[in-house]
Write a structure and sequence with these properties.
Structural class: alpha+beta
Helix content: 25-40%
Radius of gyration: 28 Å
Low-confidence stretches: 931-957
Largest sheet: 7 strands, mixed
Distance between the termini: 34 Å
Strand order of the largest sheet: 8-10-6-17-14-15-16
Strand content: 15-25%
Number of strands: 32
Mean pLDDT: 95
Length: 957
C-alpha cells in the first residue's frame, strides 16, 4: 500500500496502523495541538481540517487521509509565524482558560470563516449554537469564546508597575492559540511503554486467584502487575497538606475490590493495543461479597462493612458501620429554638453525582533522568495534577524513596475542578517504572474518568429551620449524609466543610448538626468545586426561601435580617475556626446588586405567551482557603539580561494564577509583564507548595510571590545605593534600570556588579505564606426563568451574579472564573448526572450519555464585582475560583418555585422531572420525592442479603 499525506505542508509517508484514527497518527508525528478529550466525536478537541473541511480526527480513519492535505492548529499561522486572524482574535479576547479545547474551537471557527461568501456558506457564523454543537468547553461558560469569534478585545497592556487590576493576557496565550502549549502527554519519551488497567466487574468481591500467563504471552507485553507486586501500605488517594485529614483505606492494588471499575491488575506493553489485549487475557477468580449502594442502608446493622478489616491506624470513624467520618455538635438548645419559633419548615434535599469532566483526562508518564552531577538516576513523574509536591511526598512514602530521587512536574493542566487533587495514576505508574526501569505511560480513557476517577459527593440533606413572625431565625438543625463511595478520599473533609460556612453565614442562637460521610460500593467521590458547600447551600437557601414565603416576607429582606455582618463571629456547631475572619465584607453589596436587578428587570417580557415566569436568589459564603495551613514558597530573581524569573510551585489549569503572579511581580518591581518569566508546578523549582486547590492560587501562592518580589525590590534598591554611593531611599527601581538620584544603572549592569562584589544573594529573594489567617468571600446569584407548563422546558431569561472578590487582580480573568463557575453549576442543576445501576455500576460513561453544558445551553451571565479590599489577601484580593458555583442551584430552584409554585428538592431539575411535577400539580396531587429514604434503605439491605454468601466466579477478561 502506498500512503502519502501532507500535514501542515509537510509530507509524511509512514502508513497508519490497522484501524488507527487520524488523531493518534498526527500525535505520533509530533502534532500535539491535536487533543484527546473523548475519542468518541463528542467534544471537538481533536478537530483538524482535511482539505479545508473540519473533522473530528478521533473518528476519522487515518487511512482516509491518504492523498489529502491536513491542517492542525499548528498550521494555521503563516510560515513566518504571523498568527491566523482567528488565532489573533482568540488571543485578544482570551477566549480560553485551561486551553485544552481551544484548538478545536479555533479550527471550527477558521473553517466557518473560510466559508463566508462562498457557496458553502450556510450562515453558521450568525448561528454559533449550531456552529459549535460539536465543541465542548468546560471552563469558560462560552461568553469569552463568542467574544473571540466576534472580534471583541479584552486584553490590556498596562504600563510599568500598573499591571494589578488590569486585564492582562495569559502568559501562555500565544502557545495556547498556536497549539504549542505543552500539556501532560505533549512530549516525546524514547522507549516509552504503555499501561492499561484491568478493572473489576463486581461491586464487592475478594480476589481468590489471578492467572496472568496468557497475558504475558501476548507479543509486546513486558509485565503484568497484581496485588502480589504492590506494597501493602495503606494510604489515601486524596492530597492534603496533612495526610491525616483522610482515612488510609487504599492500596495500589488490593485483594478486595469495592466498586465496579476498581483496578485489579496493570499490563505494561510496547503499545496500548498490546496492553489492552493483555488485560483481556487475564483470568481472575472472584469470591463475590455482599454490597450496599445506599448510604442510609450502609449505616444500618447487618450491612456489609466495606473496610471492616481496617484498624484504628486507618483513621476511619466507625468502620463497622461504614462511617468514614462524622461530626455532631450543637450551639444552644435547638429544641428550645423550635419552641420559640412561630413558623417552621423542614425538608429533605438530594444532590447527585457530578463528573468534573476536565477535557484532559487523568494520566501521567514516569521516566528516569540523570541526577545533577551525573551520579545515578532519579525518577521523574510528569502528571496532570493539581498537587505535584504532595504527590511526590506520597510516592516517596509509598515506595520508601528519598525526596531528592523523585521529581514530579505538571505541564499545563487541561482542567481540574478538584478532580486532580488526587493520586489516581502516579502510584501505579511509579510501581511499573521502578520494577521495569523503563518509561511508562498511563492515560485514562473518557470512560475511565467516569468509573475509575472520582465524582462530586452525592448528598442527602435534611434541614429543619424556625423563625419568629418578625423574620428572626430561632434555630436550625442540619442532618447531612454524604455518599463517599468505596473509598474515603476527601470524604470526611468534604462533609466537615459542607456544614461550616453554610451554617455560619446566618445568625441563630440555636444550631445543631449531625453529619456523616458514608462508604458504599459505588465509584469513589472526591474533591469538587465548592467542596461540599454547594450541596448544602442548595438546601439552606431553598429552606430560607420557603420560610420567607411562609412568613410573607421578601426573601431578600429575610436574608438581610439574618446574615452575619462585619466583625461578627462565624459560628457553627462544628466549632469556631480561630484563624477565619471577615477581613472584608461585601455581602450587603451583593444583595443590593440583586435588588437592583429585580427592580429594573424587563426580561419577563421575553417569555412566550402562556409560560410561567419566576425569579429567585441564592447566596453563599466561603473561606478563602482551606483550614489547617496551605503553604507556598516563591523565589523571584534578577537574571543576567535584566529580566526577572519567578519560581512558584502552584499549577496552572485555567485558573489564571500564572497571570496574577506575573501581575503581582510586575507591580512590586515596577516593571512590565514581558520582562517576567514564570517557572511553576515542578518540585525542582521551589521548596514546597501545597497545591492548586481550595482557591489558594492567588491568596496563598500569590501572597508568597508578593512577599518575594517586594523583598527583591528592597534588595535591589539597597545594593544599587551601595554600588552608587547614593542613599537607598533615593534609588528608584524602574522597568529596566535603577535611577539613583540621576545616575541610571541598568539592571544588567547591576547584576554584573553584584556578582563581581560577591553579592549574588542580593539578586534573589524568597517568600513564604502559610495560608493563615484566612478571610471569606461572598457570592449571590439571581435568575429570572420561564417554564413551559406543557413540556417542562425551562428558559433562563436573565442571569446576574454578584461577586465579592476583594481587589480584582484581573477583571477579565475573574469574570471568566465566575462565568465558568455559573455554567458548570447550571450543568449540575439542569442535567448532569453520573447515573449508577443497582450494583453501583456507572451507566453514563461517555459524554453523549452524560450531558455537559454546550454553547446553546449557557446564558450570558451579567457579572458584578463588589467594591471591597481584603485586609488579609495579597493587595486586598480574595479567592474566586470555587465560590461562584455555590449559589447557582438554589437561585435556580427558587426561581422555579416562584414560577411554578412547586418546591423542587432534588438535582438535577431535568425537563421531564419538571413536567411530571407540573402535571401532578395541575391534577391536585402532592409533589412526590423521587425516592423514599427508608424504603430505599430497606430494599438495599434486601438486595445485599440475597448475595451474602461467597460465590466463586471465574471471569475471563
Amino acid at each position: 500500500m502506498s500512503f502519502r499525506i501532507e500535514v501542515n505542508d509537510q509530507p509524511f509517508e509512514a502508513e497508519p496502523r490497522a484501524g488507527q484514527c487520524l488523531r493518534t497518527y498526527l500525535r505520533d508525528r509530533g502534532w500535539f495541538g491535536v487533543k484527546k478529550g473523548c475519542d468518541a466525536g463528542d467534544c471537538g478537541a481533536c478537530t483538524v481540517h482535511v482539505d479545508g473541511e473540519p473533522v473530528h480526527s478521533c473518528l476519522y480513519p487515518a487511512v482516509r487521509a491518504a492523498g489529502r492535505h491536513v491542517t492542525t492548529v499548528e498550521g494555521l499561522a503563516s510560515p513566518e509565524g504571523e498568527l491566523h486572524p482567528v488565532q489573533r482574535k482568540f488571543l485578544d479576547a482570551q477566549g480560553f482558560q485551561c486551553g485544552f479545547c481551544t484548538a478545536g474551537f479555533l479550527m471550527t471557527t477558521a473553517a466557518i470563516e473560510a466559508e463566508q461568501g462562498t457557496d458553502r456558506d450556510d450562515g453558521k457564523l450568525d448561528d454559533l449554537p449550531r456552529a459549535f454543537k460539536g465543541n465542548i468547553c468546560r471552563c469558560t461558560g462560552y461568553r469569552a469564546i463568542e467574544d473571540a469569534v466576534r472580534g471583541v478585545r479584552h486584553t490590556e497592556r498596562p504600563c510599568a508597575g500598573k499591571a494589578v487590576g488590569k486585564s492582562l493576557g495569559a502568559p501562555a496565550g500565544p502557545q495556547v492559540v498556536t497549539g504549542t502549549a505543552r500539556y501532560t502527554f505533549d512530549i516525546e519519551v524514547p522507549g516509552l511503554l504503555h499501561m492499561k488497567l484491568l478493572r473489576s466487574p463486581h461491586p464487592h468481591a475478594r480476589i481468590l486467584a489471578i492467572d496472568t500467563s496468557a497475558a504475558l504471552r501476548i507479543p509486546g507485553v513486558h509485565a503484568v502487575f497484581t496485588h502480589e507486586d504492590a506494597p501493602e501500605r495503606l494510604y489515601s488517594s486524596a492530597r492534603h497538606e496533612h495526610p491525616t485529614e483522610d482515612p488510609d483505606d487504599t492500596r495500589v492494588l488490593d485483594t478486595v475490590v469495592r466498586h465496579v471499575g476498581q483496578r485489579v491488575a496493570a499490563v505494561v506493553a510496547d503499545s496500548e493495543q498490546a496492553a489492552e489485549e493483555g488485560c483481556r487475557r487475564i483470568e481472575v477468580t472472584y469470591g463475590q461479597l455482599p454490597y450496599v449502594t445506599d448510604p442510609e442502608a450502609a449505616m444500618l446493622p447487618g450491612a456489609p462493612a466495606l473496610h471492616g478489616d481496617k484498624g484504628p491506624d486507618a483513621r476511619i470513624a466507625r468502620a463497622e458501620n461504614n462511617v468514614a467520618g462524622e461530626v455532631h455538635g450543637e450551639i444552644g438548645d435547638v429544641e428550645q429554638g423550635f419552641a420559640e419559633a412561630d413558623v417552621e419548615y423542614e425538608e429533605t434535599f438530594r444532590t447527585q453525582r457530578v463528573q468534573h469532566a476536565s477535557l484532559e483526562t487523568h494520566g501521567c508518564v514516569a521516566y528516569f533522568e540523570p541526577k545533577e552531577g551525573g551520579s545515578g538516576e532519579r525518577l521523574t513523574v510528569r502528571s496532570s495534577t493539581q498537587t505535584p509536591f504532595l504527590t511526590r511526598r506520597a510516592l516517596c512514602a509509598l515506595y520508601d524513596l528519598p525526596e531528592d530521587e523523585v521529581r514530579v512536574v505538571a505541564g499545563r493542566v487541561g482542567g481540574g475542578f478538584g478532580g486532580k487533587q488526587e493520586m489516581l495514576t502516579e502510584d501505579i505508574v511509579t510501581l511499573a517504572a521502578l520494577k521495569l526501569r523503563r518509561p511508562v505511560k498511563l492515560e485514562y480513557t473518557r470512560a475511565e474518568q467516569f468509573y475509575g476517577a472520582t465524582t462530586r459527593h452525592p448528598f442527602r440533606v435534611t434541614i429543619r429551620m424556625g423563625a419568629r413572625r418578625d423574620g428572626t431565625l430561632t434555630g436550625f438543625h442540619f442532618r447531612v449524609v454524604s455518599n463517599t463511595g468505596a473509598y474515603g478520599n476527601h470524604g470526611p473533609a468534604v462533609m466537615f466543610h459542607s456544614v461550616g460556612e453554610s451554617m455560619a453565614v446566618y445568625r441563630a442562637p440555636h444550631k445543631k448538626v449531625d453529619a456523616y460521610s458514608v462508604y458504599t460500593n459505588c465509584v469513589p467521590a472526591g474533591a469538587f468545586r465548592g467542596y461540599g458547600l454547594g450541596q448544602v447551600t442548595f438546601a439552606v437557601e431553598s429552606v430560607m426561601d420557603e420560610l420567607a414565603r411562609r412568613l410573607g416576607m421578601d426573601p431578600l429582606v429575610f436574608r438581610e435580617k439574618n446574615i452575619i455582618g462585619p466583625g461578627e463571629p462565624m459560628l457553627s456547631p462544628i466549632g469556631e475556626e480561630e484563624d477565619l475572619h471577615i477581613a472584608s465584607y461585601g455581602l450587603d453589596q451583593c444583595l443590593s446588586v440583586v435588588r437592583t436587578a429585580i427592580a429594573e428587570d424587563t426580561s419577563a417580557e421575553q417569555a412566550p405567551e402562556g409560560w410561567l415566569v419566576g425569579q429567585g436568589t441564592g447566596m453563599a459564603m466561603i473561606a478563602t482557603g482551606p483550614p489547617g495551613g496551605h503553604y507556598a514558597d516563591a523565589r523571584v530573581s534578577l537574571l543576567g539580561d535584566g529580566t526577572y524569573d519567578v519560581a512558584v510551585g502552584t499549577a496552572e489549569f485555567g485558573n489564571g494564577t500564572t497571570t496574577v503572579h506575573q501581575q503581582i511581580t510586575a507591580g512590586a518591581l515596577n516593571t512590565t509583564e514581558d520582562r517576567i518569566a514564570i517557572r511553576q508546578s515542578d518540585t525542582d523549582v521551589v521548596r514546597h507548595d501545597t497545591g492548586a486547590f481550595g482557591s489558594a492560587g492567588t491568596v496563598v501562592a500569590g501572597k508568597a510571590v508578593l512577599l518575594a518580589a517586594s523583598s527583591l525590590a528592597e534588595r535591589l534598591r539597597t545594593f544599587a545605593g551601595r554600588y552608587t554611593g547614593v542613599p537607598r531611599h533615593l534609588c528608584v527601581l524602574g522597568p529596566e534600570a535603577v535611577d539613583c538620584a540621576g545616575r541610571v544603572v541598568v539592571l544588567k549592569e547591576l547584576f554584573e556588579a553584584a556578582h563581581a562584589a560577591g553579592a549574588a544573594e542580593e539578586l534573589a529573594a524568597d517568600g513564604h505564606w502559610g495560608g493563615s489567617p484566612r478571610s471569606v468571600a461572598f457570592n449571590a446569584q439571581w435568575f429570572r426563568v420561564a417554564v413551559d407548563p406543557g413540556t417542562g422546558e425551562i428558559r433562563i431569561l436573565r442571569s446576574v451574579h454578584a461577586a465579592d472578590a476583594g481587589k480584582v487582580m484581573n477583571p477579565m480573568q475573574c469574570r471568566g472564573q465566575v462565568e465558568g463557575g455559573v455554567a458548570q453549576a447550571l450543568g449540575a442543576t439542569l442535567f448532569e448526572n453520573v447515573r449508577i445501576d443497582e450494583r453501583g455500576e456507572v451507566t453514563t460513561a461517555a459524554f453523549r450519555r452524560y450531558r455537559l453544558p454546550q454553547y446553546a445551553d449557557v446564558p450570558r451571565t451579567e457579572v458584578h464585582f463588589m467594591e471591597t479590599a481584603d485586609a488579609i489577601g495579597p493587595l486586598g484580593a480574595k479567592s474566586m475560583s470555587e465560590s461562584p458555583f455555590n449559589p447557582v442551584a438554589p437561585a435556580f430552584a427558587n426561581a422555579l418555585r416562584d414560577a411554578t409554585g412547586i418546591r423542587f428538592t432534588e438535582l438535577p431539575v431535568t425537563r421531564d422531572r419538571v413536567w411530571l411535577a407540573l402535571d401532578r400539580h395541575a391534577r391536585g396531587e402532592q409533589p412526590r420525592p423521587s425516592d423514599d429514604a427508608t424504603e430505599e434503605a430497606m430494599e438495599s439491605v434486601v438486595s445485599s442479603s440475597q448475595i451474602r454468601g461467597e460465590v466463586s466466579d471465574k471471569v475471563r477478561r
